[in-house]
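Hi P.,

Sorry for the delay on this. The queue was packed all week, but I finally got your sequence through. Input first:
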Amino acid sequence: MSFVIREIQPEDNPQIAAIIRQVLTEFGANRPGFAWADPELDQLSQAYQDSEGSYYVVTAADQIIGGGGIAPFPCDFPDICELQKMYLVPAYRGQGIGQALMEKLLTMAQGQGYQGCYLETFGTMAAAIHLYQKFGFHPVEHPIGNSGHRSCNLFFMRHFESPEVS
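Then the structure:
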């Protein structure tokens, strides 16, 4: 499977918004309290351009098939980012694409000096939860900040290890 992970462009906005809504509908999360109702959903390229975060889309055969982002996350812990809006269309799941996207996002986050990454999700997204755990995310009992996604019912954190000093 050939795919490309690249930074989001303004012309990608309608396609990635439609994919996010499609996936959220698939898992019963197409209502307020989830990313479905985020005001920036239809203008993701602008939302990430104006922040310290980054959003990437994944393309295959010149079609957008998913995406994911990292952004600063204001909370009680310093230097924590949030994994945001990471979704793939069903036909491309289970082929290593999500893993490649996660690797890119976490590598980028560490390169920007973040000490950890937080995410919120929904219990029906079992395959995504498995991916998060595979990448070292551990459940936390409650939200650590205010993402605005009050309907999410699972919360995960991954702390990055400090680089070795030689």
